[in-house]
Automatic annotation (TrEMBL):
Organism this protein belongs to: Acetobacter cerevisiae
Phage neck terminator protein gp12-like domain: residues covered: 23-131
Domain of life: Bacteria
N-terminal signal peptide: none
Protein name: Phage neck terminator protein gp12-like domain-containing protein
Region (Disordered): 135-164
Comp. bias (Pro residues): 153-164
Amino acid composition bias (Low complexity), ranges on this chain: 136-152
NCBIfam families, alphabetized: LIC_12616_fam
A UniProt-annotated Pfam family: Phage_tail_terminator_9
């Protein structure tokens, strides 16, 4: 016989933390790097390298940076977690060294915090059309559409799982990596590790009692007497 905890199978609701991290970081890279420079996710099958300079993102590590916290609603347990997500950014081609310096400087500046805050606000606003928020410093490509398909006066649907919030922590040292192309020629390649904080909530069902029944026992009766 297999012993169980007695809890029924729970449906755990977790926001797409990895996708949210790469999406926010890609928007940041596309804003500060030269126009038309492709920013791709590394380690993809059957994908040839672009011609000319390009950038690759590779997720390296998820590391908790705080003890998880728990709060409750009527029938849900919500676990709050903060993680340090390390993303390796590789820059190839002419100007890779200068692009790395630009990335390192801006990522560790207050401008990056403002950028990621605006990106998160607009992500939430696009999920709740009646509460659109636009930051004055938000690039036009990140701003939500002004029009909404929902009729006027219709309350926005509640978010079952809030999107994770992504914020910059710090950047590691930039380093040059030898890169030999198919023609056995050296090309520029620089790498830098970017550390981002992802704050998200994990939700799962929580059994709750809506009412309680109390049974009084007479301590002088045999039924109410404590056992020896």
């Amino acid at each position: 016989m297999v012993e169980t905890s007695g809890y029924p199978t729970a449906s755990v609701s977790l926001p797409p933390v990895t996708a949210a991290t790469t999406t926010a970081l890609r928007a940041f890279l596309q804003t500060i790097l030269p126009p038309d420079l492709p920013v791709l996710l590394a380690r993809q099958n059957r994908m040839a390298a672009p011609n000319g300079p390009f950038a690759l993102m590779a997720l390296l590590m998820h590391q908790p940076i705080a003890t998880s916290a728990t709060r409750y609603t009527a029938n849900t347990r919500i676990i709050l977690q903060q993680q340090d997500i390390t993303v390796q950014v590789s820059l190839f081609g002419q100007g890779a060294a200068d692009n790395t310096q630009r990335l390192s400087t801006l990522f560790q500046n207050g401008w990056a915090s403002e950028f990621f805050t605006a990106f998160h606000q607009n992500t939430v606003a696009q999920s709740t059309p009646a509460q659109k928020i636009t930051c004055p410093n938000t690039p036009a490509a990140m701003a939500p559409d002004a029009a909404s398909d929902a009729p006027s006066g219709t309350p926005p649907p509640p978010l079952s799982t809030p999107p994770p919030r992504i914020a910059p922590l710090y950047a590691g040292p930039a380093r040059q990596i030898p890169f030999i192309n198919g023609e056995r020629q050296y090309e520029e390649q620089w790498q830098i590790d970017l550390h981002l904080q992802a704050s998200f909530a994990l939700s799962l069902p929580q059994p709750m009692a809506s009412a309680a029944r109390l049974a009084l026992a007479d301590v002088t009766s045999p039924q109410g007497s404590p056992s020896a």
